[in-house]
Design goal:
With 197 residues, this protein is an alpha/beta fold. Helices cover 58% and strands 12% of the residues. Strands 2-3-1-4-5 form a 5-stranded parallel sheet, with helices on both faces. Helix 4 packs parallel to helix 5. The longest helix has 24 residues, at 139-162. The two termini are 17 Å apart. Bound molecules: adenosine monophosphate.
């Protein structure tokens, strides 16, 4: 399974990603997690990306593409992987598409979690108010992340939906993300043909 999970901030992507990856025993590759780890470790990469993350902006494409190319060449990705939070722009989608094609590791499934904007704003505010522990989760920053999603990532999702060649032979699945965590997971598993939810 080589899965790409798409969806707006607040759609529950991270939670579903962990469960799907566990179910299929494939690495969960989250660029957000990788960059948060870089910031915490105080590495040069961390210093480069911290400001963007704190503001809820995207890290420049070339930085994130380098990180992901290296991660995908790791031997643990041989048997599949799940991408979460990457790609986020049309440029990233094109670059990773080329990379995966050359490596003979084209995506098998693209799973899009769909949640209406008003529900997302409600969730984002709830998460910020509850203090999720994420440094980038103040209401203002979370709203900025949603704006960035609408401006840069929503057009990328549209690009996948309308450009067959961008998806290659991957099966494109649209999942209603408004259900409970278990409900959404069951729907995804039913489509992917995984084990019991
Ligand atoms: P996430 O946990 O996926 O929401 O990512 C947290 C933050 O990391 C984002 O708000 C961006 O600043 C940065 N980030 C994560 N993935 C990407 C990406 N694919 N492209 C650019 N920036 C990213």
């Amino acid at each position: 399974m080589r899965i790409l999970l798409l969806g707006p901030p607040g759609a529950g992507k991270g939670t579903q990603a962990v469960r799907i990856a566990q179910n299929f025993s494939i690495p969960h590759i989250s660029t957000g997690d990788m960059m948060r780890a870089a910031v915490s470790s105080g590495s040069a990469l961390g210093a480069k990306v911290k400001g963007y993350m704190d503001r809820g902006e995207l890290v420049p494409d070339e930085v994130v593409i380098d990180i992901i190319d290296e991660r995908l060449s790791n031997p643990d990705c041989k048997g599949g992987f799940l991408l979460d939070g990457f790609p986020r722009t049309i440029e990233q989608a094109k670059k990773v598409g080329d990379y995966l094609k050359k490596a003979g590791k084209e995506l098998s499934h693209i799973v899009e979690l769909r949640v209406p904007s008003d529900e997302l704003i409600r969730r984002i505010q709830g998460r910020a108010a509850a203090g999720s522990g994420r440094a980038d989760d103040s209401v203002e920053v979370a709203k900025n992340r949603l704006d960035v999603f609408l401006k840069l990532t929503a057009p990328m999702i549209e690009y996948y939906r309308t450009h067959k060649e961008a998806c290659g032979s991957a099966v494109y699945l649209e999942i209603d993300g408004t259900d409970s965590i278990d409900g959404v997971f069951s729907k995804i598993m039913a489509e992917l043909g995984g084990g019991a939810a």
